[in-house]
Amino acid sequence: NPKVKSVTLEEPLLSWSNVVQTPVSYNQLTNVVPGVLAHYDLPELATMIAPRPLTIRHPLDAAGNPVSQKVLEETYRVTRERYEALKAGAKLKLEAK
Questions:
Q1: Cβ atoms of 60 and 11 closer than 8 Å
Q2: Of 27, 72, 74, 97, which has the most beta carbons under 10 Å away?
Q3: Residue ranges with strand state E in 50-91
C-alpha cells in the first residue's frame, strides 16, 4: 500500500521458519497462516515495503528469546539484498538487543 510511508516492528517474531524449526514455541498458533511457507516467509514479506524505511527492532525467536545480530542479519539477508538492489540500504535498520 503506497499510503504506508515507513514501518517499525518492535519485538516481532523472527520468521515462520523459526517457528517450524523450534520444538517448543509460545503463542504462535494464534498467528498462524496455513500453508504460508509454501509461498513466503516474513523476510520475503518485509521486502515488500522497500524502498521505504523499515526498522526491525529486537526480534524474538519462536520461544520468545531475543536473537543475536548475526541471526537477524542472516535471516533477513533477502530483505537486505532487496534494499541494496534498490539503492535504499540505509533505509533498512535491523537492530538486535
A1: yes
A2: 72
A3: 54-57
